[in-house]
Amino acid sequence: MINPYLIHPATIMEKIREADSIHTYRLRLNDEATRRNFRFAAGQFNMVYLFGVGEVAISIVSDPEEPERLDHTIRSVGRVTSAIAQLQPGETLGIRGPFGQGWPLEAVRGHDVVIVTGGLGCAPVVGAIDYMFRRRRHYGSVKIIHGVKTSRDLLFHERFEAWGKQPDTEVLLASTRPDETWRYHVGVVTDLFERVTLDPAKTMVLMCGPEIMMRLGVPILMRRGIPATAIYVSLERHMECGIGLCGHCQMGPYFLCKDGPVMRYDLVEPWLGRGGV
């Protein structure tokens, strides 16, 4: 493994526009030995560093078994990400990581999987979805449920279409403020939870997005018989150090940069929606 506390230069090989102010950056670590030794799990994140500006925590969205290609989907919302948005292929970023706990893809093997995402919350789970589809025979039915505010907020259009064509797979989309082109459900994403067929005894849930979606949505799934111990959520907090020292990402007794960001729901449920924890 490479030293996660050192900043490793990486070249932008490709910059893919996903939506207004959102791009996926395909990076390649410059040092051959670093590339060879870099390993990560779906759901982990890197600290992406722009030299002279600062760094920001960004989920890795590429396949863990292709570690020489690192994809990060970045929304331009702050000082660092706005500066990164000005970069083009051939320019350099720094990578520090990987950090955190990823999705329990080995524990999910042999189970039906329900994946629930909201807004840009789909980015941290993209790598996990692609991982399962590349190893499709190891997993049961897959149901992907995704909600956005407006039609323009729907990222990864081609991926959703491709996922929906996979065997034993269902893709359900919802928008609360659609335009005339929207042909899916109109309403909040939790409306769709009652529309999917579930076998609670063999279903596991991967959820990523706004915490309000988790707090309102998980009880619906639990009423349908899925235990809290079979539900995993990816949580977002401001992360600065990546090693649990600065305290910015503390949530109750946990530091999400090292104990998360993916955590079992029953462990974090008492802390969701609570300020100052």
pLDDT averaged residue by residue: 91
Give me the secondary-structure category: alpha/beta
Largest sheet: 7 strands, mixed
Number of helices: 7
Please describe what this structure looks like.
It is built from seven helices and 15 strands. It is of the alpha/beta class and 277 residues long. The two termini are 33 Å apart. The relative contact order is 0.14.
Q: What's this entry about, in short?
A:
This protein is of the alpha/beta class and 277 residues long. It has helices at residues 32-37, 79-84, 105-108, 123-134, 157-164, 211-223, 265-268; strands spanning 8-19, 22-29, 45-50, 54-59, 70-75, 92-99, 112-118, 142-150, 169-177, 185-186, 203-208, 231-234, 250-251, 254-255, 262-264.
Q: Secondary structure elements and their pairing?
A:
Blueprint: E1 8-19, E2 22-29, H1 32-37, E3 45-50, E4 54-59, E5 70-75, H2 79-84, E6 92-99, H3 105-108, E7 112-118, H4 123-134, E8 142-150, H5 157-164, E9 169-177, E10 185-186, E11 203-208, H6 211-223, E12 231-234, E13 250-251, E14 254-255, E15 262-264, H7 265-268
Parallel strand pairs: 7-8, 7-11, 8-9, 9-10, 11-12
Antiparallel strand pairs: 1-2, 1-6, 2-5, 3-4, 3-6, 12-15, 13-14
Top keywords for this entry?
277 residues, alpha/beta, 7-stranded mixed β-sheet, 6-stranded antiparallel β-sheet, 7 helices, 19% helix
